[in-house]
Every structure is written in structure tokens, then in C-alpha cells.
Amino acid sequence: xxxxxxxxxxxxxxxxxxxxxxxxxxxxxxxxxxxxxxxxxxxxxxxxxxxxxxxxxxxxxxxxxxxxxxxxxxxxxxxxxxxxxxxxxxxxxxxxxxxxxxxxxxxxxxxxxxxxxxxxxxxxxxxxxxxxxxxxxxxxxxxxxxxxxxx
Length: 151
What we know:
Elements lengths: L1 H20 L6 H14 L4 H16 L4 H13 L4 H16 L4 H32 L17
Helix pairs in contact: 2-3, 2-4, 3-4, 3-5, 4-6, 5-6
């Protein structure tokens, strides 16, 4: 009986802890603070931080749910997108909103834009790695000379 009571108590505590941790609502202020913390941790510039905040706020103004807007901007940050890309995200979102797009359309377009930018960045990284592996010289740089052994 005592073991069952302890097991039940542990189950109840686990459910309570999960319930508190899985809070649904995220306020704008909380989301902005989380974005800022992430950018500080990644040692981003003030320009990056301002652009990310503006992109987030543009999504919220487009009536995208705060949690979804946070996820889009957070994924972009984690992927390495910075001020230039965040400014493009804000501009696109504001243009879609001005054109009368729904919140769902704005959200889908933002997700697609972030995916495409991340894909382009990954391609650049891959190309750069391939060039260094194959020893290709950079434009304007002379080819490396051989060992001179003639073999």
C-alpha cells in the first residue's frame, strides 16, 4: 500500500511538473527576451538583435501567433541568419500584410523564406568546404607550386 501511494504521488508530481513546463501561452515580452538571450549567447551584433526583434514584431503585427512567430525567428537565428536576412523577413512580412494577406499566408511565406535562406547558406558552406578540401585557389590567388621533385 505504501509503495502504491508513493508511486501515485510521484506520478502526480510528474504530471504537475510537466503541466507547468508545457505552458501554452508565450507573451510577446517573453518571446523577445528569449530571442535576445539567444542572440547574446551567439554573440550577435546590436544590428542583428534589432533586426531579429523587428522581424518578430512584423510577424506578430501580421497576426501570426506569438509562439509561431518566435519559432520562425528562433529557427532563423539558430541557422545563422542575421541582420540582412531578418530585415528581408520583416520587409516581406510587412509587404504581404499591406497586400491583405492572411496571417496564415504571412506565416507560411516567412517559414518558406527562412527555409530557403538556410538552404542557400548551407550550399555556400558546402561549396566552401569542397573548395578547401580540393585545394582550389581563391580568385586572384596564384596556384600553389608543386614540390619541385618532378615525380
